[in-house]
Amino acid sequence: MRNFEKAKRIVIKIGTSTLTKDSGVNTAYVSKIARQVSSLLAAGKQVVIITSGAIGMGAGQLKLVSRPKEMNMKQACAAIGQPLLMAEYRKAFLRYNIIVAQVLLTAEVLSNRKTYLNLRNSIEALINIGVVPILNENDSISTAEIGTAFGDNDKLSALVASKIDADLLIMLSDIDALYDKNPREFPDAKPIPTVFEITESILKSAGDKGSIHSTGGMKTKLEAAKIASNAGCRIVLANGQEKDVIARIINGEVIGTIFLPKRKLSNRKRWILNSAATGTIFIDAGAMQAIRNNKSLLPSGVTNVKGSFNAGDVVMINDNVKAVTSITSAQLKELAGKHSREIKKLLGPEHRDVVAIPEDIVFIDPGTEVK
User: Fold this and answer.
1) Which domains does the chain have, with CATH numbers?
2) Inter-residue contact 26 to 20 (CB < 8 Å)
3) Cys-Cys crosslink for 54: which of 81, 131, 146, 249, Cβ 3.0 to 4.6 Å?
4) In Å, how far are 111, 293, 326, 346, 349 from 342, measured between CA atoms?
5) pLDDT digits (tens, 9 = 90+) for 184-219
């Protein structure tokens, strides 16, 4: 379970509380990260870093005593802090003759299939020429409420790990591990070294917010672990302040909690699963059983349509399935409940007479799929 000798591609996520010190970047810590990453590269590994800390850096530069609450101030702090953050990374990695690249993302980039694939190609190109990509949410221009799109970059790290087919995601935080109960409230709480499945009870027991300048907590980390596990990626959550933490994890030492993947989806199905749905298609029990048996979704099984969407959009099917629809919401409202022979008459002989094919359908909860 903790044998990472064959782990070729590694994503390392560094949280705000781990990265910052006093009113700025913990330069000594960044140097330690650079040293450990250089050893990984020398061993033939490929590394991508997901960093937080831009808003915290900007707030420190402005001498703010707490994280700003107003959107415009958050964006201002991110704009101030991001170049300072990258300057520290660049300086630390150049000591080992490693070039780093900055990649800033918004949630919209990952939800759009075209920009999603372009981003994947860009990261692949950087990795293949020996550059370490350093990714962060583009808080200065994001249209989503800061901290809600990716949750202190926990979700972002998992999406990237999933997108680039990473073998291992290391999440470095001020959290030591997943505990059987909240260690802040219960002194007898025990760390859980291995998690085979993230259950609803585990999710409900997770806390909320992190530390003063971060937005993440255990809940966002568990949600991130679920995303990465769908790519067949192992995840290790550990305290980033542990000495040589990355090297020790790679060497198989039992540090923090390891989350083991339950299934491995294709790249396209992962994109569907992690994209925001633009509407909902409600179907009957017969249609649900059909798609469980790896059949296409037909208009005859549709009972209702909610929202407005186009062909090619990602939609929800009932409450546990996502799919790419080949029929618009307006068309589907007219076609709901009708048989395939009627579809051709209404849409024309060239139009596909199915709502979604099996390759474009993915269950959110793998336990409801047919094995």
Assistant:
1) 9-269 (3.40.1160.10), 277-368 (2.30.130.10)
2) yes
3) 81
4) 33, 24, 16, 6, 10
5) 788 888 899 999 988 877 777 665 544 433 344 788
